[in-house]
Amino acid sequence: MQEFDVIIVGAGPAGLRAADRLARAKLRVLCVDKKQEIGVPKRCAEGLGLGWFKRLGLKPDPKWAVQEIRGAALYAPSGKVVEMRFPETNGFVLERRVFEKELARQASENGALIKTKADAFEFERSGGRVNVKVREGSEVVEYSARLIFACDGVETLTARRLGVNTTMPLADYDSGYQYEMANIDFENSDLINIFFGLEIAPRGYLWIFPKGKHQANVGIGIGGTSEKTAKYYLDKFIESQPGLKKGSIIEVNCGCVPVGGFLDDMTADNLLIAGDAAHQVNPIHGGGIGLAMEGADIASGVAIRAFEENDFSHDFLKQYNDLWYEARGNKLKAVLKKRRMFENLQDKDFETLAANISGEDVMKLSAGDLVEAAKVVTKKLMKSPGLVKVMLKYLK
Ligand SMILES: Cc1cc2nc3c(=O)[nH]c(=O)nc-3n(C[C@H](O)[C@H](O)[C@H](O)COP(=O)(O)OP(=O)(O)OC[C@H]3O[C@@H](n4cnc5c(N)ncnc54)[C@H](O)[C@@H]3O)c2cc1C
Predict the structure, then answer these.
(1) Ligand 1 atom nearest 15 alpha carbon
(2) For residue 245, what are the CA distances in angstroms to 164, 181, 182, 233, 237?
(3) What pLDDT, on a 0 to 100 scale, did the predictor assign at position 351?
C-alpha cells in the first residue's frame, strides 16, 4: 500500500489545478486518470473568457490559446444576427489537449505524481484514511490517503462511492455533441458564433467556435430530455450550411453538462468534490473550465488548512461549501434562475430580441453598467410591445 496525503481522482482542469496547488504546499499528491492520454478526447468547445485568465493567473500561451476571440455573434432562428465585437481580445479558444498537458507538466514539476490509464474504482475508509484501489492496465494497485479529491467530471462515481449522491434528474443535464471540422467556411472567425431556435437546438444552442479561419469546433448542447438526439440536430444544421457541409470531421466529441443546479454539500469525511463532479458549471452556457479550476483552488485551500489542523472530518471540510457559495455559487444560483426563463423562450421571442436589441446594447448589459442597462431596456421597451411581452415572460 503506497501512502499519499491526497489522492485526486480525475486529471481534468479541476484535478490538475488541485494537484498543482496541493503539491506547491508540499503535500504528497497522487492524481490518477482513467484515460490513457491527458486531455484526450476532449469533451469541450474549448472557449475560455479573458476574465478567467485574469482570475486564475493564467498567461495565454499560443501553444494552447490558439484562437483570439473578440466577442460573439448571436443568430436568431431566421438568421438575423446580433454581433458583439469588443475592441480588444476578450477570450480564447484553447487546444485543450495541449492546455491540460501543460497543467499536468506544471503540477508534476511541483511534485505531484500523475498517472494515466489509472481507474480508481474502490474506496474504503479505514483508521482515518481512505484506501483506494486503482486499475492500472491489467494490474490493481492499492494506495491510501488522508483526503480524496473527487474531480472525476460529470460521470463521477468517486463521491457516490464515498457516500455523497451527486446525481440529478436527466432534465438537469444537457447533452452535447460536437465535430471539430476542417476545410469549412463560416463568418466571423474572430467571434464565437451561437445559433438559437427550437428547430436548431431545443432548450439550448448550437455553436461554431473558430480555431483558425477554416477550422472550428461545431457543436450543440440541448436539453437532456429532447426526443431527438443532439447529433440529429447538429447533422441537420451542418447539412443546411454549404460552408460546413463541404468540410471534414477530424474529431468527434460528446458529453453531458450538469446545468441544473449545484450540490448543497460538496464534502464528506475525507472527501472534497470539485469541478463538473460538483456541478460547478455555468447553467446558461455550460462553460466549466474556469469554474472547475476555481473550485479546485478553493477546495485546495481548505485541504491545506485541514493538514495544518490535522482534521479531515466532514465538520471541518464543509467550510468549503460556504467559501465556494460566497465566491461563486450564489452568483451561479442567480444564473440558474435565468436559465429557467431562457428555456421558455420561443422562436418568435428570439426574433423579437434580435430585431430590437443591438450588439452594443448587449455589451452594455453584459458589462454590468446598471444605469446604462436600465436606460437601454427602458428605451427599447417603450418602442416595442413585442419586447415588453418577452421581458414580462423573463420576469415571470
Ligand atoms: C460538448 C461540451 C462542450 C463544452 N464546451 C465548453 C467550453 O467551450 N468552455 C468551457 O469552459 N467549458 C465547456 N464545457 C464544459 C467543460 O468541458 C467542463 O466543465 C470541464 O472539463 C470540467 O472539468 P473537470 O476537471 O471538472 O472534469 P473533466 O474535464 O471531465 O475531467 C474529469 C476527468 O476524470 C477522469 N475520471 C473519471 N472517472 C475516473 C476514475 N474512476 N478514475 C480515474 N479518472 C477518472 C476522466 O477521465 C476525466 O479526464 C463543455 C462540455 C461539453 C460536454
Answers:
(1) 25
(2) 45, 10, 11, 14, 9
(3) 85
pLDDT of residue 390: 67
Q: Which domains can be identified in the chain, with CATH numbers?
A: 2-45+97-166+263-339 (3.50.50.60), 67-94+170-258 (3.30.9.10), 357-395 (no CATH)
Nearest to 25 by CA among 300, 329, 286: 300
Going by C-alpha positions, the residue among 41, 27, 55 that lies closest to residue 100 is 41
Q: What is the pLDDT of residue 345?
A: 81
Ligand 1 atom nearest the C-alpha of 178 is 1
pLDDT attached to residue 107: 98
pLDDT at 375: 67
Please tell me the residue having the least CA distance from ligand 1 atom 13.
287
Task: From 95, 101, 276, 297, give the residue whose CB has the most ligand 1 atoms within 8 Å, as the site to mutate.
Answer: 276
Q: Mean pLDDT of residues grouped by 10 in the chain (396 residues)?
A: 96 98 98 97 95 96 96 92 90 97 98 98 97 96 98 96 93 94 95 94 94 97 88 98 98 94 96 98 93 98 98 98 97 85 81 80 60 64 65 62
Question: Which residue owns the Cα nearest ligand 1 atom 33?
Answer: 10
The pLDDT score that the predictor gives to residue 394 is: 63
Burial of 10 from C-beta contacts in 10 A (0-12 / 13-18 / 19+): buried
Ligand 1 closest atom vs CA 52? 11
Which of 34, 92, 94 to mutate to test ligand 1, by most ligand atoms within 8 A of the CB atom? 34
Helices (H), the chain: 13-24, 50-56, 96-109, 158-161, 230-240, 242-245, 289-309, 314-317, 319-324, 330-342, 347-356, 359-366, 370-383, 385-395
What pTM does this model have?
0.93
Give the model's pLDDT for residue 320: 98
Protein residues whose CB sits closer than 6 Å to any atom of ligand 1: 9-15, 32-35, 43-48, 119-120, 151-153, 155, 157, 176, 178, 219, 253, 255, 257, 275-277, 281, 286-290, 292
